[in-house]
Amino acid sequence: MAENSFFEKAFKLKKHGTDTRTEIMAGITTFMTMSYILAVNPQILSESGMDYGAVFTGTIIASVVAMLFMAFYANLPFGMSAGMGLNAFFTYTVVMQMGKTWQFALTAVFLEGIIFLLLSFVGLREAIFNSIPINLKKAVSVGIGLFIAEIGLLNAGILKVGEISLSLGELTNANGFIFFFALIIMVVLTARNVKGALLWGILVSTILSLILGVTHFPDSHIVSLPPTIEPVFFKLDFSNVFSLEMFSVLFSFLFVDIFDTLGTLTGVATKADMLDENGNLPEIKKALLSDAIGTTLGSMVGTSTVTTFVESSSGVAEGGRTGLTALATAACFVIAAFFFPVFSIIPASATAAALVTVGLFMITTVVDIDFSDISEAFPAFMTILMMPLTYSIAEGISFGMISYALIKLLTGKGKEVSPLVYVLSIVFILRYLLPLF
Predict the structure, then answer these.
(1) N or C end: fewer C-beta atoms under 10 angstroms in the chain?
(2) Cβ distance 30 to 320 under 8 Å?
(3) How confident is the model at residue 1 (pLDDT cuts 50, 70, 90)?
């Protein structure tokens, strides 16, 4: 490709030591590893009452727009879509546990996006990130990993709610067989470093489900126009904007997304050797703004919080270094939009296996938590423990923050705690005490 080509001018390929072919192949690789979200996200959000097909299309629209900003504005090789853990919080905590409507949850995502836009412009997202203890940041990732793995096991029927607690469900029926079949494929392919291991696991187990009669070929053609987003388009509910519950939900979305995005950006950029001499990512402000734009738009077209995917590391490993990688990934999402009939026949047991596998990926940061100091270890432990046990990411964060502030204060280490952590802990305590009055 000539030096004065459009791609060279737009993405400065030679400056970054790459070329058009490498970038496009890296983008396809990133798509292969993160495309499972097109099956999993509609499955999760539809349980909140949202239209499955509309969520599928909305997810693609928000992902593509976010990646276009990541490509042309930030010029970074990161794939973006609806974040795992955040979509689970949307459905299983806000809607199912708190009893709120999906419109309420979408409004919280919309407000989160607006706040992130403002914070990204003034640089406060980095400041907030720096104020939270490192062990709690890592514990949140671990807790979410256990939480979404629990959701996957429940969705597949491997676990069920017993009279006292969880108990084993049906392991030998067709759905259980498909789940374990998909899970083994995903783990084995991941161990063999096969690109798109989760996607291949989903596809192969879907074929098995067709053979067993669990799902059936669509009545329509394999290729079709994407479903309309009309059932979920701009379905926001501002009637409870100033309620304590909205604050609690909004904060949880903000907290998880801040650490998920910044942690992913730092990790992937480190692998790509893109950090400067001070360990910072030069274009991180632009990357965070791209994420905020995707989240704001996503709430309007019917999907949960958009964030940078850790699977972007697969494209980086293939040589992706510029926004052309993100552009190529976005193009793959556009093509996938016309294959909704294929995605619609994927069984819940297959996506459940993907949830469990992603849960494994997320808990790997547990080895980086400092367990030698109990004032650090106990709050991290409470964060991890309470997420799956209370079936809520928000409760895990609350218990972790409160215990961290209290233990540090009572052991004479109060100065180690950021004032912001104390403020947030007081808010969480008031949230538990207010129902008593």
Answers:
(1) C
(2) yes
(3) very low
Query: Taking 80 as the threshold, does the pLDDT of residue 90 lie above it?
Result: yes
Residue 122: band (very low, low, confident or very high) from pLDDT cuts 50, 70, 90: confident
For residue 173, the number of C-alpha atoms closer than 13 Å in the C-beta half-sphere is 10
SS3 content of the chain, % helix, strand, coil (to 5): 70, 5, 25
Angle at 362 between CA 360 and CA 251, to 5 degrees: 140
How many other C-beta atoms are found inside a 10 Å radius of the C-beta of residue 337?
19
Q: What is the dihedral of CA 21, 22, 23, 27, to 10 degrees?
A: 100
Q: Is residue 139 part of a domain?
A: no
What is the count of structural domains for the chain?
A: 1
Least confident of 90-99, 183-192, 273-282, 390-399: 273-282
Whether residue 425 is contained in a domain is answered as: no
Largest CA distance in the chain: 71
Whether 20 maps to a domain, the answer reads: yes
DSSP state of 81: E
Give me the pLDDT at residue 68, please. 97
Answering whether pTM is above 0.90, one says no
Residues 6 or more apart whose Cβ sits within 8 Å of residue 342: 218, 222
For 272-347, where are the alpha helices, taking DSSP H only?
A: 284-301, 312-317, 323-336, 340-344
Residues ≥6 apart with Cβ < 8 Å to 11 = 23, 71, 75, 322, 323, 324
What element of type H or E holds 80?
Answer: strand 80-82
Question: At CA 212, angle to CA 205 and CA 174, rounded to 5?
Answer: 75
How large is the average pLDDT for residues 5-24?
89
Q: Which domain holds residue 19?
A: 6-125+154-364
